[in-house]
Specification:
The chain is α/β, with parallel strands linked by helices. The chain folds into 4 domains: 1-15 and 291-388, Rossmann fold (3-Layer(aba) Sandwich), CATH 3.40.50; 25-195, Tetratricopeptide repeat domain (Serine Threonine Protein Phosphatase 5, Tetratricopeptide repeat, Alpha Horseshoe); 199-287, Alpha Horseshoe (Serine Threonine Protein Phosphatase 5, Tetratricopeptide repeat); 398-568, Rossmann fold (3-Layer(aba) Sandwich). Helix content is 46%, strand content 8%. The chain contains 24 helices and 10 strands. It has a 6-stranded parallel β-sheet with strand order 7-6-5-8-9-10, sandwiched between helices. A 4-stranded parallel β-sheet has the order 3-2-1-4.
């Protein structure tokens, strides 16, 4: 692959999670032949020489001391004496993997399987190596091969569930956890993983109790502390969650998930100074890959004519939220390149300052420094009190707005846009998205014309004839500029927490946002307005998973809005 002049590859180097949010750690089960190695696993074969037995026994001692490098050196020597032994290959693979040389370890585990396709320890190790590398499809395939040999391996079923959860295949993950729990009904870790897929008060209470019981046994277990903090957050016990999160980070300052989750809690509580600093730890998460640009990161200094690349990351809503900072970057005296996904390209060009918009998969132009968009709030020392919230901060071309005015002109009464589902790849999408049928109480509002702003796989939820008389615009909403044109010609948007509400807020249009009990950090807690978007009204769940109450309140307020409008007309 050729290198571009700026030092980055022609293809887009960015590989970030679509959207980030607090989530529990995987409650991983021990039992794969990975720790600690038993003596019988180290004996390469019965005909091995006394020298091999001595080398492997000494390697086992090194394993018990966590000296995996020395163990690997010993096992290299053992393998040379028995070069056709699957066990010798796998033992060395294990030592190399434990010493952070997973690529070589994987090759040796595969060689062990080639030597003996039924050698179970090698299948276990290979699956674990692939899972740690976050190669979900390959790891799933490896575990499935293992289950052919060991159908009652509860650890394999559990870890398949963890992979499926990460892939957002939640129904399948639940089934895998159920199979694991059927084999080990008293295993609390498997039950915790099941609970992580549920969104109700009883499940959260049980998860909290599970973590508290484990803490009694291991009071300094950082993984348990992190899971307890997350469970308390989902239960709305934010202050308690913060306490356990701080304790986890104090015990292990480099624990990746603990530090990131602490940033989310700080931001949720409005402690933005601390939150933005901690949020930089997102780059340490295994699912997030920081761009490998040779140019330095921008830290807020004057640009003096230099070109800065502003790199989008995570979800489209995050990008729309942070476009408000582009004019502030421009005041530092440089040239701006906005690197965004294609659906945002035309919208990004509507910021009120001169920018060059570069689609994510196009060749990069030259630049001198760069900055991720979600690092801008930290650079500009954003606090709840000084959020740059003058709206609108995005402005469409008049021709696009007028075209949408003509498109929607025949609708009478109050024109209301709807969106009921977000990106299914979001870690907490099952908490924030709802089924279209849940919105049926809204259809009873007289004098309202609903239009669907929903795109993606859930757009087809309306069916061929629509639902409740909702006008389906999905085929016409080809990018966010088109969605913005539609929103500008509506009276109101009602939606769950998706990019649509960020767009409405950025355009200065009224939007009612239906939020889960444990919301995303940007919505803060215990308020029905948003300092980020003055035209938004927040409708929060009063109990985990209770959308019916939210929708009843929205429907009642919609009826009142229609009545007020009728009285004024």
């Amino acid at each position: 692959m050729r290198e571009a002049r700026d030092g980055s590859a022609d293809e887009e180097p960015r590989e970030v999670s679509p959207e980030l949010g607090t989530h529990p750690l995987a409650a991983e089960l021990p039992g794969l032949p990975l720790a600690p190695m038993a003596p019988e696993n180290l004996v390469a074969d019965r005909s091995a020489s006394e020298n091999v037995r001595h080398l492997t026994a000494t390697a086992l001692t090194k394993f018990s001391e966590n000296d995996y490098v020395s163990a690997a050196d010993l096992l290299v020597r053992a393998l040379k004496l028995v070069p056709h032994s699957p066990a010798a290959h796998n033992n060395l693979a294990l030592a190399l993997w434990r010493s952070k040389r997973g690529v070589r370890g994987e090759a040796l585990a595969r060689r062990a399987i080639k030597l003996d396709p039924n050698y179970i320890p090698a299948h276990r190790l290979l699956a674990e190596i692939l899972r740690e590398r976050d190669d979900i499809s390959a790891a799933l395939a490896s575990y499935e091969r293992l289950l052919v040999l060991e159908p009652d391996n509860a650890v394999a079923h559990n870890n398949i569930g963890l992979l499926l959860r990460k892939a957002r295949r939640l129904d399948e993950a639940g089934a895998a956890f159920a199979r694991a729990r059927a084999l080990k009904p008293d295993n609390l870790s498997i039950r915790f993983n099941e609970l992580s897929l549920m969104d109700d008060a009883a499940a959260m209470s049980e998860a909290i109790g599970y973590c508290q019981r484990l803490l009694e046994l291991e009071p300094d277990n950082v993984d348990v502390l992190t899971n307890l903090a997350t469970s308390l957050q989902f239960a709305g016990r934010i202050d308690e969650a913060m306490g356990y999160g701080e304790r986890a980070v104090a015990l292990d300052p480099v624990h990746r998930q603990a530090r990131f989750n602490l940033s989310i809690l700080a931001l949720l509580r409005g402690e933005y100074g601390r939150g933005w600093n901690e949020y930089e730890h997102r780059w340490n998460l295994p699912e997030v890959k920081k761009p490998h640009y040779r140019q330095p990161l921008w830290t807020g200094e004057d640009l003096n004519g230099a070109t800065i690349l502003l790199q989008s990351e995570q979800g489209w809503g995050d990008t729309i939220q942070c476009l408000r900072y582009v004019p502030m970057v421009a005041t530092r005296g440089g040239n701006i390149v906005l690197r965004v996904d294609r659906p945002l390209q035309r919208l990004a060009a509507s910021v009120p300052t001169k920018v060059m918009v570069s689609p994510s998969h196009a060749r990069l132009p030259e630049f001198d420094v760069w900055c991720p968009l979600l690092s801008l709030p930290r650079i500009f020392a954003t606090a709840v009190e000084n959020i740059p919230a003058d709206v609108p901060y995005l402005h469409l071309r008049s021709g696009l707005t007028e075209r949408w005015h003509r498109r929607l002109a025949n609708l009478s009464g109050l024109k209301v846009g709807l969106a009921w589902a977000g990106n299914p790849q979001h870690v907490n999408d099952f908490r924030r998205s709802i089924g279209l049928d849940r919105l049926k109480p809204l259809w009873d509002a007289r004098g309202v014309n609903f239009v669907s702003l929903q795109v993606g796989s859930h757009a087809k939820d309306l069916g061929p004839c629509g639902a409740g008389g909702v006008l389906d615009l999905s085929a016409e909403l080809t990018d966010f500029a088109e969605t913005a044109g539609a929103i500008l010609n509506l009276d109101l948007v009602i939606a769950v927490d998706t990019a649509v509400v960020h767009l409405a807020g950025a355009l200065g249009k009224p939007a009612w946002v239906m939020l889960p009990f444990s919301p995303d950090w940007r919505w803060l807690i215990d308020r029905d307005d948003s300092p980020w978007y003055p035209t938004l009204r927040l409708y929060r769940q009063r109990a985990p998973g209770d959308w019916d109450d939210v929708i009843r309140r929205v429907a009642a307020d919609l009826e009142r809005l229609v009545s007020e409008r009728s009285r004024k007309s």
